[in-house]
Design goal:
Keywords: Amino-acid transport, Cell membrane, Membrane, Transmembrane, Transmembrane helix, Transport. By secondary structure, the protein is mainly alpha-helical. It has nine helices and two strands. It has helices at about 1-10, 20-50, 55-70, 75-85, 95-120, 125-130, 135-165, 180-190, 195-225; strands spanning about 10, 15-20. Helix 2 packs across helix 5 (about 95-120), helix 4 crosses helix 5 (about 95-120) and helix 8 packs antiparallel against helix 9 (about 195-225).
């Protein structure tokens, strides 16, 4: 109990910061990066899917290269290269760099999730929609995508959870996220258990909460079948 008080509820270091406040600030950074990265990733994922399914080589090749490079390299390597090399001359802050890096990473995976979901819909659905006079874009919007959404929603939920946990590497570029806050407390107080387990419990609560909400949403979709 004393270890918890010393590491979380008393000032640590010369700046007088209380450990629990440092963790809460780190949690705010984690949630901000995750939220905006999933938005950016979703936009990139949709665009990449459309490019890959366009049938035009000048759109398909760049999309395939993007997906292959992102999926073939660790996210921490992408984060470090983007911040210290690509964005070094632009004076971009750490949070923005993290959002871009994680958004780019997530976009590649989301594009494959969307593409797989669309391809899982029976081809007869498109033929039937076109025979009723719908254009290709109308058929995709009104017939194919609503069915594909039910296929891709669980995978999209998993991608969000993975992204949330992957943000723990923001500390590699000096950002103070939830995990980095725990490490700072540990280095200043020499207490390992309290700060690290606190971070682990917060991650667990976040992922469990989102999984629960996603399950509720999936059940609502099933009721509409």
């Amino acid at each position: 109990m004393q270890a918890i008080i010393d590491s979380l509820f008393t000032p640590i270091g010369s700046d007088g910061m209380i450990g629990i406040l440092l963790i809460l600030n780190g949690l705010k950074v984690t949630l901000l990066v995750t939220f905006f990265a999933i938005i950016l990733g979703s936009i990139l994922g949709v665009c990449t899917t459309l490019m890959k399914m366009s049938g035009k080589w000048y759109l398909t090749w760049p999309a395939n290269i993007y997906v292959s490079v992102i999926r073939g390299t660790p996210v921490v390597v992408q984060l470090v290269i983007l911040y210290f090399i690509v964005l070094a001359s632009l004076d971009v802050d750490k949070i923005t760099a993290a959002v871009i890096a994680f958004g780019l990473n997530s976009g590649a995976y989301i594009s494959e999730i969307i593409r797989a979901g669309i391809q899982a819909v029976d081809k007869g659905q498109m033929e039937a929609a076109r025979s009723l006079g719908l254009s290709h874009s109308q058929a995709m919007q009104d017939v194919i995508f609503p069915q594909a959404l039910k296929n891709i929603l669980p995978a999209l939920g998993n991608e969000f959870i993975v992204l949330l946990k992957e943000t723990a590497v923001i500390g590699f570029i000096g950002g103070v996220d939830l995990m980095r806050a725990g490490e700072i407390i540990r280095s200043r107080t020499f207490e390992d258990v309290a700060p690290l387990f606190t971070c682990a419990i917060i991650y667990l609560i976040l992922t469990y909460t989102f999984t629960f909400l996603l399950g509720k949403f999936e059940n609502r979709l099933k009721q509409s079948d």
